Amino acid sequence: MQADLKTFSSFGLHGLTAVTCVVSETPLEVSQVHPIPPAVLHDQIRLLLNRYPIAALKTGMLYSRDHIAVVCDLLADSSIPLVVDPVMVASTGDPLLLDDALGEISGRLLPLATVITPNLPEASFLLGREVKTPADQEKAALDLSSEFGGACYLKGGHLKDRDQHRDLFANQDSIRSFTAAHLELPQTHGTGCTLSAALAAGLALGHSAEEAAAQAHHFTHQALRDSFSWPVPNSEDAIWHLNQIASPPVSHPAPRPRR
Fold first, then answer.
1. Which tens digit of pLDDT belongs to each residue from 124-173?
2. Between the CA of residue 138 and those of 122, 165, 189, what are the distances in Å?
3. What residue spans define the domains of the chain?
4. Radius of gyration in angstroms for the set of CA atoms belonging to the chain, rounded to a whole number
């Protein structure tokens, strides 16, 4: 949520949040996950939708089928652009989604999305097959777009031992690639959140999904490139974070809200 809000601010937008879980974590570990009661999540989203002129929506960690059902019920008739980041596993490898929630994501949430932003392991879960090679990635992006009816931004950072990383944006039968040089970073915690938030920001500013995807790719690479770190007390480790704030602001001013 912090990554989302910093990203929205960098695009000149005012971000709002509905909390699904309180998580004790750093880029090095997930200590505890405390889910918010679904009824409280429902009330947060209901209130925000009723009181603000929402220009775009994005989802992140939803945790359980009941949390996902709340979101789907509230957005079933919405025409607001929606970016779904199907968060399943933390960067540390810790699960962030209960096993019974996958069917609710596939059956109800993803068909509502304007753009979905899975990584390769998430694409493997959703398609029920391994997605490990560049050829797998291309077919997976097209298949996910076709299956769920929206666009798919398939991240390629899990492809190993590469000088460049390639993300793919598929919209039905068309596909576009975005490449960036490999950055040797010990931790890239928050990359998916940053990218999906930047993509939602582009949609909120009125860009097409493809234009928003290109801008989000560039913004996320800058945030990775400008990462900062702190030493961990009494340890040889360091904690690294993306730096969304240091990235140059975009040139498109945000629309002023109606009063």
1. 989 999 999 999 999 999 999 999 999 999 998 767 667 888 999 999 99
2. 15, 13, 25
3. 2-241
4. 18
Q: Give the residues across from 89 on adjacent strands.
A: 95
- Separation of alpha carbons 159 and 209, rounded Å: 24
Token couple for 30: 């997930």
Tell me the two tokens of residue 69: 């059902």
Considering the entire predicted model, what is its pTM? 0.90
Strand 21-26 to 82-84 pairing: unpaired
Q: How far is CA 120 from the centre of its chain?
A: 13
Q: Using 50, 70 and 90 to split pLDDT, how confident is the model at 255?
A: very low
Catalytic residues: 155, 188, 190-193
CB 148 within 8 A of CB 203: no
- The fold of the 2-241 domain, in CATH, is UDP-N-acetylmuramoyl-L-alanine:D-glutamate ligase (3.40.1190)
